[in-house]
Automatic annotation (TrEMBL):
Organism: Streptosporangium jomthongense
Family assignment from sequence similarity: Belongs to the universal stress protein A family.
Name under which the protein is recorded: Universal stress protein
InterPro entries (alphabetical): Rossmann-like_a/b/a_fold, Universal_stress_UspA, UspA
Domain UspA: 1-135, 145-279
């Protein structure tokens, strides 16, 4: 199948925002867009008239989404698919041959209960391809990409994705490394010198991690930021002036215990812009 981006829709505001974002992303990638709507598996005995009406409504959701995508990204190759079943199961299957999955942060209808903690969190980090979660709020573009990194395999995958996104967009990249004191060090009598010492070490570590990526992507302007701060707060603040935040599905070091449900989970809840969750390759 041709390289393509998959977006799930149910007609909700955040789903419409996801469709628009996915259409533009497909164009940047030079691929196609596949729009998927999942309807409930209606019980046997459903009146025929009602089933036909609901089916027509579902088709209308897809037609509206396709029209929105073509309007946002003229020339994009759009296909639609009406599926029956559970949204998570269908989208996990769709992810098998897609470049990435894009979904809204909340939903309704065929994506009933599409809240962070349900479909979004059941996909992010659980499929091999990146998962982008888009909020429904429209806001002006800032043109920048933010990526959180700590040297873990997942953050390396996030860096690869983020540099690629920045290059395709012709945008700057802010590479953010946030660190915290080890629990045993909190309350140390040498608190300030300890912070200064660790800060210098973390700055050098960040420079070493980014060096090969800068060499591979000399066209990308990189701003390196190292902060003594909680990663979720740091990335949340950075998202206010970004078009996309990229995080790995789990991490280590400065992103201590960053399994999905901690840092990635927190960023999905608090970021002000779309969030891409990237899993390390097997």
């Amino acid at each position: 199948m041709t390289a393509h981006v998959v977006v799930g829709t149910d007609g909700s505001p955040s789903a419409e925002a996801a469709v628009g974002w996915a259409a533009e992303d497909a164009v940047r990638r030079g691929g196609a867009l596949r729009i998927v709507h999942v309807r409930e598996d209606w019980r046997r005995g459903t009146p025929r008239e009602l089933e036909e009406s609901l089916t027509e409504e579902a088709r209308g959701v897809l037609e509206t989404a396709a029209s929105l995508a073509r309007g946002r990204a003229p020339g994009v190759d759009v296909t639609t698919s009406l599926e029956t079943g559970r949204p998570v199961e269908v989208l996990r299957r769709e992810a098998e041959d897609a470049e990435q999955i894009v979904i809204g942060s909340r939903g309704r209808g065929g994506f009933a209960g599409l809240l962070l903690g349900s479909v979004s969190l059941s996909l992010a980090g659980h499929v091999a391809v990146p998962v982008v979660v888009v909020r429904g709020e429209e806001r002006g573009g800032h043109g920048g990409v933010v990526v959180g990194f700590d040297g873990s395999p997942e953050s390396e995958a996030a860096l690869e994705y983020a540099f690629g996104e920045a290059a395709r967009r012709g945008a700057g990249l802010r590479a953010l490394h946030a660190w915290q004191l080890p629990v045993m060090a909190v309350g140390s009598v040498a608190y300030t010198p300890l912070i200064e010492d660790i800060s210098g070490t973390e700055e050098r570590l960040a420079t070493e991690i980014l060096a090969p990526w800068r060499e591979r992507h000399p066209e990308v302007e990189v701003e390196q930021t190292v902060l003594f701060e909680h990663p979720v707060f740091a990335l949340g603040e950075a998202s206010k002036a970004a078009d996309l935040v990229v995080v790995g599905s789990r991490g280590l070091g400065g992103f201590g215990s960053a399994v999905l449900g901690s840092v990635s989970h927190g960023v999905l809840h608090h970021a002000s812009c779309p969030v891409a969750v990237v899993r390390a390759k097997a």
